[in-house]
Amino acid sequence: MNRRAPVALVVSLTAALALAGCSSDSSSSSASSSDRPELKVSGGYMPRPVSDLAAGFIVVTNSGDAADKLTSVTSDLSDDITIHTTESQKMREVTSFDIPAGGELQLERGGSHIMFAKLKQRPEVGQKVDIELHFEKTDPITVELPVKETTYNPAQH
Ligand code: CU
Questions:
Q1: 15: β partners
Q2: pTM for the full model?
Q3: pLDDT by residue (tens digit) across 16-64?
Q4: Element (H or E) spanning 106, and its range?
Q5: Using CA atoms, how far apart are residues 24 and 21, in angstroms rounded to an integer?
Q6: What's the CA-to-centroid distance between 15 and ligand 1, angstroms?
Q7: Is the pLDDT of residue 127 over 90?
Q8: Neighbours of 117 (CB within 10 A)
Q9: CA–centroid distance, residue 113 to ligand 1 (Å)
Q10: Integer angstrom CA distances of residue 152 from 52, 61, 85, 98, 131
Q11: CA 83 to centroid of ligand 1, rounded, Å
Q12: Ligand 1 centroid to residue 88 C-alpha, Å
């Protein structure tokens, strides 16, 4: 049988898609700006876990001219990390969080959060947990989450 034809077809399709992506990008960009996300992560923390589950909270600010998405989180603390929203006090796993251009993504208690399951250890208050954030467009960003009291909530003063 001839194996060459299908391979050639796939390659040409991929090239066509890549070209289509490029041309639509450039036609939608404004004349003035760089059209890229500029992300900054702040305010991260992890409430001290009391089981083999933990939550993580961060704020991602986007000062750029393009939206991005938080797509996944990795850490040595757990091989089972997902991102969740909370609706009517029920958690739901999502595939990504939007980070709008000129806006921010806020993960906070009672809302969206990073969920760490099957913890390899339980960090104590004062320790720090390194996490790596993965985005649709921006290169991965590593941040340290300080471990706070289990009930810690920066929104309540
Ligand atoms: Cu959750």
A1: none
A2: 0.77
A3: 444 444 444 444 444 445 799 999 999 999 999 999 999 999 999 999 9
A4: strand 104-106
A5: 5
A6: 39
A7: yes
A8: 13
A9: 6
A10: 18, 22, 19, 25, 19
A11: 7
A12: 13
53 C-alpha to ligand 1 centroid (Å) = 9
Taking CA atoms, 131 is separated from 35, 59, 114, in Å, by: 27, 14, 10
Q: What is the DSSP letter of 116?
A: E
Q: How far is the CA of 106 from the centre of ligand 1 (A)?
A: 15
Q: Which residue has the tokens 């996490």?
A: 131
Between the CA of residue 45 and those of 9, 23, 29, 32, 73, what are the distances in Å?
49, 41, 36, 37, 14
13 or 98, which is more confident: 98
Per-residue model confidence (pLDDT) at position 155 = 82
* 108 Cα: distance to centroid of ligand 1 (angstroms): 11
